[in-house]
Every structure is written in C-alpha cells, then in structure tokens.
C-alpha cells in the first residue's frame, strides 16, 4: 500500500487506497480532504512569499461526499496585508466543488506583558513507551476510562476521549508540514467528541482549527473539551496539543446519523451515509 492519501498526476491529486473511507468504498474520508485543502493553501502562501506569516485559523466545509475520483484544487487570495493574509481553497471533482476551506495567516510578534487566564487541565500524550517518538504513521492511539490503546473497541463508552496521531503524508513522496498535519488530523475532532456508548451517531459537516502556533512536527493529539447536542445537531470542541503542550482548539458541527451508526465495539467497523 502506498503510504499517502494521494499521488500527483500533473496538477491533479489522485486518491490512493489510504484515502478511502471505511464507510463506503467509493468515498474519501475527511482527513484526506482536509489535508489536501490545507496543502493547497500552504502552497499559495509560499507562492506569495509570505514566510513571515503562520496559519492561525483554518475552516473546512464538507458539503458533499468526496469520491475516490481525481481532485483539482483552486485557491483565491481574499486579502493580503502586512500582518495577515486570507486564502480560500476549493476541492473539485468532475468540475464540481465538494469541499472548501478558508485560512487566516497571521504575523508573529511578541506577547503582551499582562497575565490572562488559561486552563490548568493540560493534556498529556501517551508515554513514548506506548507511542514511540517517531514520525512513522501508525494506527491512532485513543484514550478513555480504559487507558491508552490502539484497540478501538475498548473506547466505546461514555467517558472523555483523547487521541494521539502521526499524520499520514497527503501526497506520495512529500512530508507534510506541521500545519498540514494538524489540519488533516483535526477531522478526528468529530470522533473524540461524538463517540459514545453506541458508537459515533453524528456526522460532521465542518472542521475549524485555531492555533496559536504550528505543531512541533507531525504528531498531534486531540482531547475532547465540550459536547452539546439538541434536535439532532451537535457541536464539539477539543484541545489540540503536541509533546510541547497545548497550542490550539478544534471544533466541529455535526448532524445526527443514527440510522447508520459508526459502531466501533468490535474494532474499526465504519458505516456512514453520504454527507448532507
């Protein structure tokens, strides 16, 4: 198996098997879609020569099911100034948009001298004895009341969820940047916030990742911090962290999908309906 989500075909991205959703054979999962959009935005920022800026807010709208067909990506510079740059990206298949993203890149400076509240609940990744400190991709680690493990069936419970992942390369032969790694893994916010005693019963329609800094490498964790649901609509948030500490927040909005629940009680068995 090629260890990436896509291969290059000219300017197009052709999905590889790792991009295939386990809910439906002809569907791509959100990690691949989000990673492809983030890569396009990063390339546009590089083309502008804006190495002085860092990605600070990244939002994806997943409004159609992405198939396993070749993808084209377009970008638009919405606004560029001395301290910020706004870039939009769209992922198209057969000429039709299936997902879009927007990013705000900001210029670094110095922190003010005042003191501001921040939470004392500092997330901790699994020990290096459990998750070796390597950039080699692996099956995600999850944590709940059952402790850290790669056995998904142990975490189908009502306790708080946490994950630790090493990013899969977006394009074959390319190592992802920290930003692209975090943007891809941020799709797992839906899993850590919407996974309960009967599986994952909500399907996310978006992802928003806000970062005070890029991660230190391609290993990123998420720990659920909030979840609210009413009338079939759920919102969830997670703290984003690496081995240096917390650096951001990810949120998702989701729709009830109880007719075809993602049941992980016997391992990685996904079933999912098309996106709204």
Order of helices and strands: EEHEEEEEEEHHEEEEEEE
Return the average pLDDT rounded to an integer. Answer: 93
Biggest sheet overview: 12 strands, antiparallel
- Strand percent estimate: 35-45%
Number of helices: 3
Shape: globular
Query: Based on the structure given, which CATH architecture is correct?
Result: Beta Barrel
Termini distance?
A: 31 Å
CATH class value: Mainly Beta
Explain this structure to me?
The protein is mainly β. The strands form three sheets. Strands 3, 4, 5, 6, 7, 8, 9, 12, 13, 14, 15 and 16 form a twelve-stranded antiparallel sheet that branches. It has a two-stranded antiparallel sheet with strand order 1-2. The C terminus is likely disordered. It has one domain: Porin. A hairpin with a 2-residue loop joins strand 14 and strand 15. 12% of the residues lie in helices and 39% in strands.
């Amino acid at each position: 198996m090629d260890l990436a989500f896509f291969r290059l075909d000219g300017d197009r991205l052709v999905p590889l098997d790792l991009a295939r959703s386990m809910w439906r054979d002809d569907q791509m999962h959100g990690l691949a879609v989000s990673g492809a959009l983030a890569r396009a935005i990063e390339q546009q920022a590089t083309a502008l020569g804006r190495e002085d800026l860092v990605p600070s807010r990244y939002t994806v709208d997943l409004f159609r099911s992405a198939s396993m067909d070749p993808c084209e990506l377009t970008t638009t510079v919405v606004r560029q100034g001395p301290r910020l740059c706004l870039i939009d990206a769209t992922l198209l298949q057969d000429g039709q948009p299936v997902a879009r993203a927007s990013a705000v890149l900001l210029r670094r400076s110095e922190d003010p001298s005042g003191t501001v509240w921040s939470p004392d609940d500092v997330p901790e990744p699994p020990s290096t004895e459990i998750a070796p400190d390597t950039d080699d991709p692996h099956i995600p680690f999850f944590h709940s009341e059952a402790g850290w493990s790669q056995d998904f069936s142990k975490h189908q419970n009502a306790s708080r969820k946490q994950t630790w992942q090493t990013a899969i390369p977006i394009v074959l032969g390319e190592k992802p940047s920290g930003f692209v790694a975090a943007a891809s893994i941020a799709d797992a916010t839906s899993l850590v916030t919407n996974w309960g005693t009967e599986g994952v019963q909500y399907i996310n329609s978006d992802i928003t990742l806000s970062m005070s800094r890029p991660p230190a490498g391609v290993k990123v964790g998420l720990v659920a911090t909030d979840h609210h649901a009413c009338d079939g609509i759920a919102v969830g948030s997670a703290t984003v962290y690496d081995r240096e500490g917390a650096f951001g927040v990810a949120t998702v909005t989701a729709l009830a999908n109880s007719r075809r629940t993602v049941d992980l009680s016997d391992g990685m068995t996904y079933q999912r309906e098309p996106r709204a």
